Predict the 3D structure of the following.
Amino acid sequence: MPAYTTPSDVESPLDREPRTAEGTRVQDDIAVIFDEASGYYRHLRWEKNPVVLLEKAQTHQVLVEELGSGPVGTALEIGCGPGTWTPLLADRAAQVVALDLSPKMLEQARAAVAAEHVSFLQGDAAHFDPGNAFDLVMSVRVLEYVPEWREIIARLERLVAPGGRAVVITKTPVSVWRGTGRSRWFGPRNLLQRLLRRETDPGFWQRHLPVHELTRAFAEAGMVDIRVRPVIIGLPIYVRGTKQYPIIPAFAERPALAATQAVSRWVAGRGRRGRRASLIFAESYAISGRRAAAPDHVAPRAAAS
Ligand SMILES: C[S@@+](CC[C@H](N)C(=O)[O-])C[C@H]1O[C@@H](n2cnc3c(N)ncnc32)[C@H](O)[C@@H]1O
């Protein structure tokens, strides 16, 4: 397997990189935040209660369907975090590269996915240019933290091998999930800030990427068969989610979750329009595409005429 590098200092002078209001590099701050979160992220986001377990199952289902069953030669995960989804690539590909900005997230991932054909690499995806292409490229809940997300998507043209696939999951920008937490909506100051569309936490770079912009970026990167679908779908009304949404009491949670799952399955079977319309109820969405395979041969003109 080739030695991968992330030549950020060589290819992109530090003074051209996105900065916070305090003058620090955005990605340095993001790395610190995820280093700090590495000890609890997986449990909090994906394991701690029936609500997040359902969200994990929904995300898993979408990834399985969008990645296909393999086997393939090589796969790349951008922002593997604690290795939540890396096994999906390890099961399909002979060689896997899992990249993340946060060294402590990578420690968790190495411990969770001990497989010789998986290499973990620390680096900023915005500058990751390995010089070779992969049959599968996957990124789950990462692009929303990367100011240079467009550059990463543009690079799919080189990162995805002909005939290969890219699957990206990110948070839905226009959704019943946005701003629904008690602490975010209530109180005149919060409400005013939201109505003025000001960031409530300016120290933490996070953007919810519009579906049409991401779709266009995929197309401009030469991806075809582009598909958009909801991932975590339902209503943010449960008591024990990752935030407090205290509308449904704990005793009513299980039947409500079962109903949510039924709706989610129903939506998955709808056509393109149905899936797009349901994005308003989705916390996150997936976009996938295929890089057209290089034609095996070009038919000679004489034979065609
Ligand atoms: C919300 S976590 C998601 C982790 C994992 N994909 C999952 O779904 O459980 C986001 C991850 O993206 C990583 N990340 C953020 N910006 C990155 C960048 N520019 N390059 C590589 N990884 C990045 C963070 O360190 C963190 O581990």
Remarks:
- The first strand starts at residue 72 and ends at 78.
